[in-house]
Amino acid sequence: MAILKLKPSGKDYIWGGHKLVDNYGKEMTGDRLAETWELSCHPDGPSFVANGEDAGKTLRQYIEEHGKKVLGTNCERFEDFPILTKFIDAQDNLSIQVHPDNEYALKNEGQYGKTEMWYVVDAEEGAYLYHGFKKEISKDEFAKRIEEDTLLEVLNKVPVHKGDVFFIEAGTIHAIGKGLIIAEIQQNSNVTYRVYDYGRVGKDGKKRELHIEKAVAVTNCAPAKKDDSHYPHIADCDYFTVDKLNLDGTTFNKLEGTVSEKSFLSILVLDGEGEITSNGERVSYKKGDSMMTNHSLLSAYFGYCALQKNLDAKTLKAYRTDLEQFSGCHPHLVDVSRADMERYIEQLMRHWKVSTVKRKIASLKAFYSYLVYEDFLKHSPFDKIQLRIRQEALLPRTIDRGALASIFSAAYAELRAARSRS
Questions:
Q1: CB 182 within 8 A of CB 121
Q2: How many CA atoms, within 13 angstroms, populate the side-chain half-sphere of residue 347?
Q3: Rg of the chain (C-alpha set)
Q4: By C-alpha distance, which of 1, 2, 3 is closest to 289?
């Protein structure tokens, strides 16, 4: 398989805005763009091959012509393409909703159920979402609260920040709030049961349909599970595995890896620009791009950016199985000075909230661990170490520029000492 660049189908749902057009280069035919279906074989919104000799074909057509072998051996157990990825722009609140599991959906809707995950690409100040219930309630109370319009009182309202991750198992009641840009990875399904919709009307002037009976039947009326079993990935289940890679153009400007014969690889570019190579083929990427490939050797490079620009080039990968042998990342900071570190700190403080700065520092700690424990890392993917260290809550809740400088300086000193001993 070549590196396929994909063009999405768009959805103009009433709660959508214009950010996917203005900030991510997406095309819009109506007055709003709520979702783009970036990797999709679903008949309600296919994605299209945008490059090479197969340009213009739907992704489903491409797979039918080249055979399911392009998806890897792990996809042989799925009758249909297993996943769907989206960008979502919530200018207004989405409905309170729930998705059924496979058993219920196949029996009643003729398609898969829907387990999904959200990565918060951007969040306005004060943004929130609903995820499960505050406490367990009965099905009868659930139905009664829907009828009496008091459901929001028992839902778990969660403040949201850029970089947050949520895993939404089928049967979990949920809703994306306004002011959020979300990258969603989900099962290949378009089954949604609306429970509450703020009394809004659709394009036909009528209130949008609710699906109360079905929603009550499939909803798990309990708090959402806090599941840490996804480690070392940000999400991992029977249908998809998701990792995040950071190429900032300075500390990390190249990543190399192999996609195994078991899997295919889907890439969503959340920011920045650069180039990906595979078996001699070179494909450029920019913010908002979606790409797909299978068994191959990959190298990703971050393109040049001036220091004052946002250098956080995130690549969200959703793929069927682990990316094997993800190594070969050899950034060089041996000659980095304290001034260089402080400039990087200043850039972080200028562009990012405290919570994001903490994650970036943790990622830098991972880089140092990579160099110090290089022999160990020959047998362990770099991204696993990065995620393990990032999850350690070692930093204080509030942090100033001076504290950041101390952390960087200490880490730098530890690195130099370790290298001098080796």
A1: yes
A2: 20
A3: 22
A4: 3
The burial of 308, by beta-carbon neighbours within 10 Å (0-12 exposed, 13-18 middle, 19 or more buried), is given as exposed
- The distance in angstroms from the start CA to the end CA of the chain is 42
Nearest Cα to Cα of residue 166 among 114, 129, 218? 129
Q: What residues in the chain have per-residue pLDDT under 50?
A: 302-338, 340, 366-401, 422
- Residues 145, 194, 359, 390: which is the catalytic one? 194
Helix or strand run (H / E) with residue 362:
helix 354-372
- pLDDT in the model for residue 390: 37
d(CA 242, CA 299): 18
SS3 assignment, position 142 = helix
| pLDDT number for residue 272 | 86
Q: Which of 412, 291, 251 is nearest to 3 (CA)?
A: 291
pLDDT at 250: 62
* DSSP at 148: H
Q: How many Å apart are CA 377 and CA 372, to the nearest integer?
A: 9
Residue with tokens 């520029």: 401
Specify which residues 180 forms β-bridges with. Answer: 90, 123
| pLDDT number for residue 199 | 85
Two tokens at 279?
């078996």
Residue 410: what pLDDT?
57
CA 339 to chain centre: 33
3-state DSSP helix/strand/coil % of the chain, to nearest 5: 25, 30, 45
pLDDT of residue 221: 96
Q: Which residue bears the tokens 């950016």?
A: 305
Q: What is the pLDDT of residue 258?
A: 74
pTM to 2 decimal places: 0.72
Contact partners, residue 78, CB within 8 Å, separation at least 6? none
Query: Residue 74: how many CA atoms within 13 Å on its side-chain side?
Result: 20
> Is 194 among the catalytic positions?
yes
Burial-class residue 332 by CB neighbours within 10 Å (0-12, 13-18, 19+).
exposed
Task: Give CA–CA dist 262/72, Å, rounded.
Answer: 4
Measure the CA–CA gap between 135 and 180, rounded to whole angstroms.
25
Q: Are 344 and 337 in contact (CB under 8 A)?
A: no
Assess contact for 402 and 355: CB atoms under 8 A: no
Say how far apart CA 228 and CA 238 lie, in whole Å: 15
pLDDT score of 381: 37
pLDDT of residue 152: 95
Coil, strand, or helix at residue 145?
Answer: helix
